[in-house]
Structure to design on (222 residues):
């Protein structure tokens, strides 16, 4: 496509018109092709390839200033953001052992409070069963003590820790893990195997006998 004269439309509009014209020509192509039509279609295919290549150049040229501007903004702000991240990681690294030790102490205090609460509860139950009025009076005090200790343990459990909990997996038996996930999520493995097989199919050096894989030679118009 050539663009001449002062009234030439902008690249996007110009290529839109050209590609739309080509598309209209291609629209409705059937499967019954003779030798004459084959040549015409080959020429049309070449026109589409040229149009796409040139249109993509115009797209890249139009996009480049925006890419350059975006890169400049990113380069300007990245050092500041990186400094925040570096400092934040250093602070968290310093806080983690202190907060971990502090949390252990809180957990231990909660554990002891629960043990004492259970002991007081059992003592209260025993005292309630006594025929002695003093023991039964004491049982009420022990029951209140058990309740207070349980409340204390619950409060300790709910205290903010300043720690973020996360889990990570360690593979100890690859075969067992593979068989588990293969049975649980077979579609993911099918997709992965297809990708690996397609990669081998495209490479003559790796296109060999592979268990469970058959390589088919296909032909499509170039």
């Amino acid at each position: 496509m050539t663009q001449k004269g002062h009234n030439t439309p902008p690249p996007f509009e110009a290529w839109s018109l050209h590609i739309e014209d080509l598309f209209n020509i291609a629209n409705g192509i059937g499967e019954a092709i003779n030798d004459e039509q084959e040549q015409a279609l080959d020429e049309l295919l070449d026109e589409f390839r040229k149009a796409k290549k040139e249109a993509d150049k115009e797209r890249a040229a139009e996009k480049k200033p925006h890419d350059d501007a975006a890169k400049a903004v990113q380069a300007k702000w990245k050092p500041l953001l990186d400094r925040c991240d570096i400092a934040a990681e250093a602070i968290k690294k310093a806080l983690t052992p202190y907060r971990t030790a502090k949390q252990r102490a809180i957990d231990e205090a909660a554990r002891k409070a629960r043990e004492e609460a259970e002991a007081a509860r059992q003592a209260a139950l025993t005292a309630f069963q006594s025929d002695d009025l003093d023991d039964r009076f004491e049982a009420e005090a022990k029951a209140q003590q058990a309740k207070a200790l349980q409340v204390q343990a619950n409060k300790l459990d709910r205290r903010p820790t300043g720690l973020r909990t996360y889990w990570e997996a360690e593979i100890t038996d690859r075969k067992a893990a593979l068989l588990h996930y293969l049975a649980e999520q077979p579609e993911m493995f099918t997709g992965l195997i297809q990708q690996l097989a397609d990669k081998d199919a495209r490479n003559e050096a790796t296109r060999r006998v592979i268990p469970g894989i058959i390589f088919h030679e296909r032909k499509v118009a170039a």
